[in-house]
């Protein structure tokens, strides 16, 4: 019998993977898997129980938009994963504070995270750990970056590359969406914050002038790398004293031109426009048209890569520390690479919080979890990790 009672809010792809990992490795007495759709929660819980050959996962019907109901759900739970839609995350955070329950979430939206950081002092007072930005990126990616920075006594530069791609790209999009499409637009909607010459700068997301090519080991080959906020809060935390910090997302060649064409047409706008007397939101129209074209099916074969390169001078020699993490679908459980890297990472941090290993307050993953223990947790889950430390 395990020691901890966990909650997972959201029984979709990532929430189901998180529930599975908590049952297998979180020392769980029980995992309550909640969703507004009772059949979805039931199916997801049954899948977790079938895969784990246990009965530790129990479905719960919950409207994550009802803060009072979420507070009741979280009461008497040690820690929870919030895998609810982006617009509900701030409310779930409020409920976690009221219930005095640790919570992690998958938000990478700067506005939402800003609201959460306004609750930091209250979280400290209530003894609650809130870790936004878990998941594949910034979460797992932030911990990868923290690890390579720790290899150098005086790091000067950090480059980060992040990818979630189909192993078998199909034209014309050469992309498969393994998470909610709102998360994709969130990646592309905000200005990118980097550091150059020791000073913070702002660059345009998907800026062709800042897009470079990088060649990775098979099966990927040459990819285009464009500016992105995949690094999360790193630019303000661990990278704040560096001379250079740049984070980029990797896609198959042509992606930048495609998305910029949509943006130039105004299809990423979120304000209403009139079309023949009907009010529509351009981004919602684009989502409705594009999502069926790129949504990953149940048999998608994807690959996730998080690669960090840190540079610094050691005894007069310029050195480079590199760590590259890769993952592909697990044929035994059926979880995709994105489900594993997103759901498992959130579960790792949630279990750390339950064990009292994370300080109270609101903090990003790179500050919440120490680099070496986190890397040990990631290795234990079978992620392919290669690292090097050599003259640059």
Count the beta strands. Answer: 18
Number of domains: 2
CA radius of gyration: 20 Å
Write down the overall geometry: globular
How much β-strand is present in the residues? 25-35%
Q: What class, by secondary structure content? A: alpha/beta
How much helix, percentage-wise, in residues? 25-40%
* N-to-C span: 50 Å
How many H/I helices?
13
Low-confidence stretches: none
Could you describe the 3D structure shown?
By secondary structure, this protein is of the alpha/beta class. It folds into two domains: 4-135 and 338-370, NAD(P)-binding Rossmann-like Domain (Rossmann fold, 3-Layer(aba) Sandwich), CATH 3.40.50.720; 137-336 and 380-391, Dihydrodipicolinate Reductase, domain 2 (2-Layer Sandwich). It contains 13 helices and 18 strands. Strands 7, 8, 9, 10, 11, 12, 15, 16 and 18 form a nine-stranded mixed β-sheet that branches. Helix 1 (13-25) packs across helix 11, helix 3 crosses helix 4 (89-99) and helix 7 crosses helix 13 (371-380). The N and C termini lie far apart (50 Å). The mean pLDDT is 95.
Structure in a nutshell:
By secondary structure, the protein is an alpha/beta fold. It contains 13 helices and 18 strands. The protein has two domains: 4-135 and 338-370, 3-Layer(aba) Sandwich (Rossmann fold), CATH 3.40.50.720; 137-336 and 380-391, Dihydrodipicolinate Reductase, domain 2 (2-Layer Sandwich), CATH 3.30.360.10.
Which terms summarize this structure?
single chain, 392 residues, alpha/beta, Rossmann fold, Dihydrodipicolinate Reductase, domain 2, 2 domains
């Amino acid at each position: 019998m395990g020691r901890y009672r966990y909650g997972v809010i959201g029984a979709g792809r990532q929430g189901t993977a998180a529930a599975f990992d908590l049952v297998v490795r979180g020392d769980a007495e029980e995992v309550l898997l909640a969703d507004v759709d009772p059949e979805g929660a039931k199916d997801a819980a049954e899948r977790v129980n079938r895969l784990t050959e246990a009965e530790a996962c129990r479905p719960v019907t919950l409207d994550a938009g009802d803060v009072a109901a979420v507070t009741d759900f979280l009461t008497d739970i040690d820690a929870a994963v919030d895998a609810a839609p982006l617009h509900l995350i701030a409310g779930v955070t409020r409920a976690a504070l009221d219930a005095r329950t640790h919570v992690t979430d998958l938000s990478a939206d700067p506005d939402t995270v800003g609201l959460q950081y306004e609750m930091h002092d209250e979280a400290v007072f209530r003894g609650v750990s809130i870790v936004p930005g878990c998941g594949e990126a910034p979460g797992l990616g932030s911990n990868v970056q923290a690890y390579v920075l720790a290899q150098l006594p005086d790091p000067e530069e950090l480059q980060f590359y992040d990818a979630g791609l189909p192993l078998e790209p199909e034209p014309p999009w050469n992309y498969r969406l393994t998470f909610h499409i709102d998360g994709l637009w969130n990646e592309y909607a905000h200005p990118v914050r980097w550091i150059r010459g020791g000073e913070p700068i702002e660059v345009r997301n998907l800026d062709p002038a800042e897009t470079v090519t990088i060649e990775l080991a098979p099966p990927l080959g040459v990819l285009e790398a464009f500016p992105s906020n995949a690094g999360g809060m790193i630019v303000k935390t661990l990278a704040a004293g560096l001379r250079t910090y740049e984070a980029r997302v990797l896609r198959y060649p042509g992606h930048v031109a495609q998305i910029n064409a949509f943006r130039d047409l105004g299809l990423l706008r979120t304000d209403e426009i009139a079309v023949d007397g009907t009010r529509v939101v351009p981004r919602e129209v684009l989502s409705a048209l594009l999502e069926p074209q790129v949504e990953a099916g149940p048999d998608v074969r994807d690959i996730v890569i998080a690669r960090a390169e840190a540079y610094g001078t050691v005894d007069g020699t310029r050195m480079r520390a590199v760590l590259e993490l890769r993952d592909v679908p697990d044929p035994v459980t059926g979880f995709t690479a994105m489900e594993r890297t997103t759901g498992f990472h959130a579960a790792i941090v949630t279990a750390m919080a339950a064990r009292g290993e994370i300080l109270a307050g609101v903090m990003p993953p790179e500050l919440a979890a120490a680099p070496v223990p986190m890397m040990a947790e990631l290795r234990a889950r079978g992620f392919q990790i290669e690292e090097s430390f050599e003259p640059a």
